[in-house]
Structures
1.
Amino acid sequence: MGRYRETYDRWKRDPEGFWAEAAREIDWSRSWDTVLSEESGLSRWFAGAECNTCWNALDRHVATRGDQAALIYDSAMTGKVKSFTYRELTEKVATFAGALQRHGVGKGDCVIIYMPMVPQAVVAMLACARLGAIHSVVFGGFAAKELATRIDDARPKLIVSASCGLEPGRVIAYKPLLDHAIELSAHKPSATIIFQRAEAQAALVPGRDFDWKDEMDKARAEGRAPACVPVAATDPLYVLYTSGTTGKPKGVVRDNGGHMVALEWTMKNVYGMDPGDVFWAASDVGWVVGHSYIVYGPLFHGCTTILFEGKPVGTPDAGTFWRVIADHGVKALFTAPTAFRAIKKEDPKAELVKDYDLSTLKTLFLAGERGDPDTIQWAERALGVPVIDHWWQTETGFPMVANPVGLELLPVKYGSPSVPMPGYEIHVVDEAAHELPANTTGAIVVKLPLPPGCLPTLWRNDEGFRSSYLADYPGYYKTADAGYLDEDGYLYVMSRTDDIINVAGHRLSTGGMEEVLAGHPDVAECAVIGVADALKGQVPIGFLVINRGVDRPASEIEKEAVALIREKIGPVASFRTAIVVPRLPKTRSGKILRGTMRKIADGEAWTSPATIDDPMILNEIGDALGGVGYGKKE
Ligand code: COA
Ligand code: AMP
């Protein structure tokens, strides 16, 4: 462990010195007073400094790499490919910033972006950054109610959206979802700007909805192309909502200064990228991977980033990823293991790889869910490049644990995302925050302070930040993941400790789904668990206990429950199975035994907890699961 060990130790000896040195790669309009300080008990990085994220992502590169592609949009859905140079993207972003400004958006205002994977989504994000406005991108697979919850929490001045998104075989009209969300929300944005796609035209509400193209034309005609507005390093760049333990998502805040420093550091040292290289994160701008590694990281570093609209399979086939790599000379691909499981299922022998020249590809990075050894080894064989599992969260914004190929490629241990990155001192502890010995599973925690780039707090909710992340293990950040460290310091992440599940790399709350199901008029109580799924990693299953006196067929209520989750949370929940059961297994104190139910569903060995109210209920659950094809595995 030469360069990795040397770098990690250097950070550990002098964290502030380490990050101050990393900060030299960023342009600042005013330097910081302190590298690390505290404000009401919360860490602040680079207080006193002023900077602009858009400047660092775009403008500063125009002089040196103005003609280089900054963004390549490749849509497997429409067959369209369009490249934007740094100069062109800067112009578009400045113009759209002018359009936002015409609607009164300025420093500190919030803008929600509800967009499919089109370049306008990236333009809107960077235009907000240019003005010092705070963007909040909402993933397109969420339904109106989820969007409404975010509108009420973020209170945006304006919403940017599109007429539609494209899913295989169907056009998803976004505008009716947006209209419905605005109807549901208590907060009303003063305007929306809608990008009309050729596949569907949205009806615009006069006086409230404005057409993207018209707004760009007006800004151009008025010569509006505002310069980058300096903001405090500690000012928020964005709020990204992520699933918590309830139906109310958490607004993860990202600041401007620390975020740039941390992401820029990772591009070279973790991902091994040089300016001019092509980086492809096959994710969605609605997730943190999209924020950090479709948009910000690659652009800070002067790379070319790929914005891919499509799926790993079926658009048109399991060779799409290889086509994109070959067409654009991708050096590193980052996606979720589930995408590779999907490809492997369609093309188990990786025959389609042979049709493409993948010689530019140097590394495949996987994250978002546990990287199962089978998938990793299959990808290694198929591509002949190192396959790097790495572990992080929406909250941290960049990898906590990785194999830092830019420093050195450490030996790969299957099932482990490898070793802690600078910024993260990882511990595995018991419930009393006592360190556990190597190879013993416990809660994974990070010693405070968190590094730059990590969430400084939750949006307008410092108390929620403290209680969710800092209260349980004093002096540590709670990751809510469980696992162990081996004798070489490699981490193994095994499961969540809360009711978050990971479905096709998408983070979802079973608690949130239970809240929706409980709203069904015939449901007395319910439980949702995540069960193992060969393709998506996990999928949710709901158990429903029906109110006494309801005599409708169970199958009817089950169907309504499935439809209700799709309507209230969205298709992304992949909620397809609801089962009516006579009762739920509980402890004598009334706690539902979700963990035991999951083990039964996954066909794992289970024992009846001593505190159970009535052990027979677990057999009933087993029978119910058997009826829908679960619980039979070894
Ligand atoms: N807008 C509207 N609907 C969406 C959507 C969007 N942006 N994204 C997904 N959906 C819909 C899908 O069409 C699907 O609908 P269906 O129930 O009618 O079939 C549903 O939400 C579930 O989506 P998903 O779980 O993604 O399943 P899928 O079958 O469409 O695709 C994979 C499965 C594995 C191919 C896909 O999830 C994938 O590529 N994932 C890995 C990459 C990734 O995005 N990772 C995120 C973090 S790195
Ligand atoms: P998200 O916030 O959507 O990025 O989801 C973060 C969660 O996904 C983590 O807390 C883990 O539970 C899981 N996760 C992400 N990456 C990995 C990984 N490489 N191995 C295991 N679990 C992971």
2.
Amino acid sequence: MANHIIINNKIKSFKKIIKVSSDKSISIRSILIASQAVGISKISNLLESEDVLNSLKTIEKLGINYKKKNGSYYIYGFGLNGFDIKKNTTINAGNSGTLARLILGLLVKSKLKVKLIGDKSLSKRDFSRVITPLKLFGVNIKSKNNFLPIEIIGSDYLRPIKYDERIGSAQVKSCVILSALNTPGTTIINSKKSRDHTELMLKFLKYPIQVQKKISSERILIEGLKQFKAFEYEVPGDISSAAFFIVLTLLSKNSQITIQNININQSRIGIIRILNRMGANIKLKNKKIYNGEAIADIFVKSKLNLKSVDCPAKLNSSAIDEFLIIFLVASKAKGISKFKDLGEMNKKESKRLDLGIKFLKLIGIKVERFQNDIKIYGNPNLKLSKEFEIKNFLKDHRIFFLSCIAALTLGGKWKINDKQSANTSFPNFLKLLKIVGAKIN
Ligand code: S3P
């Protein structure tokens, strides 16, 4: 089957109510945390994407059974460190940084050596950010220059740590929190703010974790060695997937969309804050709290006359996976948009800051870069008619989605490669685009 798609037409006006894929961060956490619970957990509405399926395969390799019944996943946990690890176990995190970093936290007490590998993109990502705290706990960990493959053997003599997490990485913070579960005593993390799904899920399970919020950081205290019971959890929709439909609607004519049941955790909705600053007027309706997480329907209308934004760096972490699509909005906005301190974007599935700039230049947008700050010169009259081919973007799913939305809102004749990358996070993306009215071959 061809691994590319062709888009030759802009999308026509639409008015739709849709649901997007379930949240990837919460799906992965629900599996990993259920693997440590006592008893059978039931997870509904789990995202069935490659990153999440790799999480299921990973816990299975570590001796935790699961089965799917009537659309829900049942995970058979044996409590903390209840893994049954065989000799020469290798686990493959595929494309997922979240799975790779978080699973290391659950292996701090493993009796046998476990080898962690990943795909080409993950093998280029730096693991020093988790290797450093893991070593402080007393774990034995080997890698070549902090890249995959990594070999880890746990320890019976773990010690609680006090860790300053300065990157603002939820993967690092969560790796430390999960390591703390199996460590006697109280681990303390001073963390720059980042998504807090791990903390919220553990709180929902009544695990002894405390979060003391400060202005731009948090102090998290986790007591180790407390068992918790199996649970039921229904995963909400993913704002990072909704983001592409939000922008599709904003940049199309006379259109509107309601995206139902999306996780609107404050640490995730930077995109809504940024787009509203640009004049978007995105609304959150039917707000509710489910198991500690905030959920709502997102309502968006087309918007002509968007204006540029001077984006404060304090919003970066809450929009970290959405900047590519935010850049597209900045391209159509009036004025010069400014984004600062986006170095973390280059540490994702691809070097997204570099590639995002390459993409903007390809569609004729002027961009200036100074270190990790960029200025995007918006052009409200931007209309494309040329031919474009998107390839060699390291199979990054979010670059694939961005390209589709650009093609459907700006025009031009597009050949977009690496269609399969959508399976990483949003397998029904193209199907949903067609439901909304896109013509895609
Ligand atoms: C994630 C955290 C973010 C994000 C990634 C998912 C998570 O990475 O980019 O897609 O689920 O914890 P960092 O924590 O490294 O910033």
3.
Amino acid sequence: MSDTTAEPPTPTPSTQAPSPRTAAPAATPMTRREVEDTFDLDALYTPEERMIRDAVREYVQSELAPHAGEWWREGIFPEHLPRAFGEMGMLGVAIPEAYGGAGATATAYGLVNREVEAADSGLRSFVSVQSSLVMWPILTYGSEDLKKAWLPRLATGEAIGCFGLTEPDAGSDPGAMTTRCKRVGDDWVIRGTKRWITSGTRADVAIIWARDEDSGRVLGFVVETDREGFRAEDIKTKASMRLSVTSELHLDDVAVPDANRLDVVGLKGALSCLSQARFGIAFGVLGAGFATLDEAMHYLEDRPSFGEPLTGKQLVQAKLADMWSDLTKGSLLAYRLGRLKDEGAITPTHISMAKRDNVRAALQAARHARDLLGGNGITTEYGAMRHMSNLETVSTYEGADAVHTLILGRALTGRAAF
Ligand code: TGC
């Protein structure tokens, strides 16, 4: 039996003096490639997907990323970009080649979004609205004449498109739209206001959703923006997405021929387009998130504080590790999302989960980066604050975080709680 009353042994004093604090050896941080693809997803992409991604990465990093801060600060979306994007094959990546697209996989389209958003979410907004919200509905619901008239020009960037669903008083609940259409002879006459419309004042063509006064059903139309009664103006008070053009559209009894009506009836037409755009966002935001992680890693390694680089501090590493881990899980989710879409097995629930959670991961990464960069983090010389501010918009548009949460809740429980 042991003697529980015995005194604990007296520790033997060390004969060695405590080692003086020595300078930390040179650090060998992971490369950007290792950080951004820790689970080697690269090996799972096709050679064509890798080729498209790498070409866009090179273009974005050399031609867009160095200027994004200045364009954002000045509130400029440079006029030459649509044509340049077209030349790079970045518009309509998954649209068939017969209509001017690249005919690539949905995964390739997602990867393009990711590369573009590494520079700025506003640039990705242009690409995804043009591809997912304008080209996709024309391809899917448009007549052959509409496809031939618009898709090749939208693919080259010669024509610009926008998507009018949201209204000043109808965002999360698009069914509450007040824009109306009425059949008059061979035409439809459309009246209403749309708001928060990317590229609205630049657009040559608008996809407009309106409720039929007679049937009460929601219909979609391809509306040329030079039609009488169509007017657009920019929203100039944005503290986010500043290098993206965001507009309000006014349709004052705009007449369009029945041939411009999309072949889909009900809100599902518009929601199916949003599914395409939300898919791209789930990939895109990872680009912004990883850009803020990369920036923070470089900044902190070069910045000593209390005698050593900030990357050697525990609280800093905790944030970096969370950013890396969350964005990496987002990449795995996006990869699977892409393949489900390529296989035709994707559902709106998959997309809602990926859009919601990947935006959360990217936004949290940007917030951490902003914090880690200290005072410099609030300037536009660094990307953290700009990305953070943009991602606040991305969290709200194309289905607010709360809407996607409730879509997931409805899928889980079978009860709609909107
Ligand atoms: P609900 O009953 O759920 O559905 C009505 C019909 O639509 C179908 N559906 C979908 N189809 C394809 N993809 C989806 N994601 C779909 N979601 C629903 C559904 O099957 C049904 O079809 P059917 O045949 O039975 O008629 O409709 P609800 O009114 O209850 O909708 C619920 C809710 C909240 C999920 C939906 O309204 C929603 O997603 N709200 C958010 C809307 C949104 O994202 N708005 C922001 C868009 S961003 C913007 O407009 C700016 S333009 C982009 C830019 O310029 O940057």
4.
Amino acid sequence: MSDAPKKLHIKTYGCQMNVYDSERMAEAMGAKGYVLTDNPAEADMVLLNTCHIREKAAEKVYSDLGRLKPFKDEKPDLKIGVAGCVAQAEGAEIMRRMPLVDLVVGSQNYHRLPEMVEATDRGERPVDTEFPTEDKFDLLPQRPLSARPTAFLTVQEGCDKFCAFCVVPYTRGAEISRPVSKVLTEAQKLVDRGVREITLLGQNVNGYHGAGEGGDWGLGRLVRALAKIDGLERIRYTTSHPNDMAEDLLEAHAEEPKLMPYLHLPVQSGSDRILKAMNRKHTVEAYLRLVERIRAARPDMVLSSDFIVGFPGETDQDFEDTMALIRAVNYGAAFSFKYSARPGTPAADRSDQVAAEVADARLQALQALITEQQRATQAGMVGREVGVLFEKPGRLPGQWVGKSDYLQAVHVAAEGLAPGVLARVRITASGPNSLAGELIGA
Ligand code: 5AD
Ligand code: SF4
């Protein structure tokens, strides 16, 4: 049989773990003869890998599904699947509300996707959102050759922290760490295929405690073992909780040059009252002290954070305290969100929800301050020498783009570069979203 390969379109919402999961699903389907397409109109199967973290993200899935209706009307064979955290949380509801959906696969079950697609061939509408006993990572096919020099590697999933606003402990389940040997093997394979930078992923990645030689390993020890892999030049990890920044990890930042000086360390709020109500289990002072220790270990560290404004009960003073924390830390970047009440989370039931206009105004003020700090961080790079890992040609002829050690986009005009080249660059100019530089010694 020489049928043309079937085409799969995947749309990924939300966090980097979904990006990683989408790649794994593409591989699982690749083994079944599906190739990827960017164009949903020519796809034989469309898979939405969804995010449940805020209401807007979850609702978007339903409107995007609605938008697929004309495609399905035109091509009744088109298969439509919903994966990820909305699938996990509301699989049955998706099937009820959206008759055009053929299958729903939860975030722990995507290794079963090919057999679920086969079931749809028999006219079934499978839903699989159970937490399985087998390890999906074991059952997925090998990762294929990657032309990109950077890769994500999931080392930990789930969260036991139960912040009062957050659905992750329910959608992604309890914390699970992959064993050290599996992480090291996957990392080595990535490096053999040309990857130079690995970002270790986990919902609570610095809570990593994988089984390794001699017992449980923390993230610091894992990082040091990864750093021994020849050809792996850079290691990053995300996302971290302040309470899990172990001494060993701080030491790794001080001693391991492959561990990059950029850390995403969400604090969410700068008010002790709100932190307590959020069940974050640390104070503002503890966070600021931790930031000091991180900068003592690695003085050039660039920090980023997540913030939520308009958490139930947040007063003007609480918000001012958050602004004060931002001024005290000085972030290189941050993500900020209006609080979104998520069904099933403790904060959703509170009667003191903040008015939308108030939350809007706070979000604007916070984002203006962050933008100011981000610009200042970028401008402060001018004249400095940084490492840049080049990824692809830029928009202008002869231009190459890569990422600095601090995760900033950098472009240079230079000959002879290629994806995966790590070079020293002197930064010559800064913009809000990227830096310009020249190769040192070129
Ligand atoms: N409302 C708004 N933002 C949220 N986040 C998580 N849950 C909510 C919610 N219910 C934000 C947090 C988290 C980031 C990934 O998303 O800031 O760190
Ligand atoms: Fe959600 Fe809090 Fe866990 Fe982060 S630490 S995933 S915000 S519950």
